[in-house]
Amino acid sequence: MKLWEARFVTIDTNGGVMGPGPEHDGSRLLAGMGFPARFSRRQLLRRGAVAVGGLAGLGLIDPNVVLGSAFAPPAPIPGGFDTSFNIVPEGAFIHVLAPSVGSEMSSITDFNGVIGASETQGSAVGTDGSTYDFDCDMRFMRGVYVGLDGRNHNASFAFI
Amino acid sequence: MGHVGDIGHQSHDFEPGIAPSGLFWTIPITPSAIDVDPGRGQARLHANNVAVTDYHDFINAVFGGGPTPIPSHVSFDVRWSGDGDRQEIRDEKFGFTGHYVTGSTTISFSASNDGVGVIYRSDPSAAQTNVGSPGVGHERNGVFFN
Question: What's the complex ipTM?
Answer without folding.
Answer: 0.94
